[in-house]
Amino acid sequence: MPLASRLVRCCFRHSPLRVPWRWLGLSLGLLLELTACSTSQAVRPELLARIRRGAEQVNFGQATVRVPLVGTSTLPLVSVLVNGKGPFRFLFDAGGNVVTVKNSVVRAVGGRVLQKRGKTDVVGIDSLQVGAVVFRNVTAGALEELDVDGVLGFNLFREGLLTLDYPAQQLTWALGGLPAPDGRQVFAYQLRDRMPYLPVRLGQDTTWFNFDTGAAQWFYLPKALAPRLPLASPPQAGPASWNQQAGTQRNETARLRIDLSIGPYRVLTPYFLFTQDTEALLGSGFLQHFVVTFDLSRQRVRLARPDTVPLAMPEVRRAGMK
After folding, report:
1. DSSP reduced 3-state for 156
2. Using an 8 Å Cβ cutoff, are 273 and 197 in contact?
3. Distance (Å, rounded) from C-alpha 271 to C-alpha 137?
4. What φ, ψ does residue 105 adopt, rounded to 5°?
5. Residue at 26 is within a domain
6. Of 161, 214, 258, 312, which one has the greatest count of Cβ atoms within 10 A?
7. Which of 246, 262, 281 is nearest to 96 (CA)?
8. Residue 108 phi/psi, 5° resolution?
9. d(CA 239, CA 263)
């Protein structure tokens, strides 16, 4: 089990950049606001552009790259060589839009500090290698404390088919594309701040959910949405979270009195974790039942599983439960 499950949001001046790795198996965890309060700490514009790109060059050693997932069923980790050293364990996070590396790894591989920023430095890495794919000239954020060695943000992956096969515990990146959205297996997604979002109908409203592969639970919603949902009962105290700005925060959990459907896939009266975040999330608790394929060029996603038998979600642990 990872250390205290964490959410990190990195907001650089003038442009929000998130560095979220939300391992919410225990709590919503660390929320770290890194908005620069002084001009001296603002990220330089040329570095900001490089952080957004992630890598200046991507080299494929073969047309189809397959690597095993080395984490758990709800924690998709891959082995990564950093500057030819390692392997290190990196989280693949579709809920992250920048690359993040632990400071100890940066030091161990001879990474370069491009700008000191106090809690989050901007660093340069010559190469990240995942299987036969090499990302070159990577610009990343570096943090002293991470539950993993690093995080591969969705911004690194720009074209082709990227498949996260949860049942087989395998990550594949290959050439090709998906057919047009059919509302059954293939859906259109939107890129928002370089992360994928899917529209999901909840009662009378449509909510855009981020595919947050770094989140261990099933579904997360902002607390502000709770009054608009057809809940079976009022929200109750859920697992607590902690962040560096506000300390301990109280989250809530409640169950829908209707099913949740995405195409033909149905979850029976699911539980939601209501957090103080501002976004809705599809976590790996839900995604672990699927083979998830992103068509990176056309912004399409395929959710595939052997059948359409409705999923029964376990109850989200409430405060005081053992």
Report:
1. helix
2. no
3. 42
4. -70, -45
5. no
6. 214
7. 281
8. -65, -30
9. 30
Mean pLDDT computed over 84-103: 96
Chain centre distance of CA 100:
12
Q: Is residue 179 reached through a cis peptide bond, with omega within 30 degrees of 0 on the bond before it?
A: no
pLDDT tens string 138-174: 999 999 888 899 999 999 999 999 999 999 999 999 9
CATH no. for residue 239?
A: 2.40.70.10
What are the distances in angstroms from CA 217 to CA 197, 263, 271, 272?
17, 21, 10, 9
pLDDT given at position 316: 74
**What pTM did the predictor assign?**
0.87
- Sequence length of the chain is 322
In this structure, how many other beta carbons lie within 10 angstroms of the beta carbon of residue 29?
25
Is residue 241 assigned to a domain?
Answer: yes
**H, E, C per residue of 19-30:** CCCCCCCCCCCC
Please report whether residue 276 resides in a domain. yes
DSSP assignment, residue 33?
-
Q: Nearest CA to 212 among 132, 122, 123, 275?
A: 275
Work out the angle at residue 182's Cα, subtended by the Cα atoms of residues 178 and 188, and round it to the nearest 5 degrees. 65
The answer to whether residue 210 sits within a structural domain is yes
What's the gap between Cα 99 and its chain centre? 11
Residue the block writes with tokens 């920048």: 98
Span 300-318, average pLDDT? 91
Question: Any idea which of 10-14, 27-31, 59-63, 206-210 has the lowest mean pLDDT?
Answer: 27-31
Helix H or strand E encompassing 214? none
Catalogue the long-range contacts made by 187-192 (C-beta closer than 8 Å, 24 or more residues apart).
Answer: 187/262, 187/263, 187/300, 187/301, 187/302, 187/303, 188/299, 188/300, 188/301, 189/294, 189/299, 189/300, 189/301, 190/299, 191/299
DSSP secondary structure letters along 75-141: B-EEEEEETTEEEEEEEEETT--S-EEEHHHHHHHT-EEEE--TTSEEEEEEEEEETTEEEEEEEEE
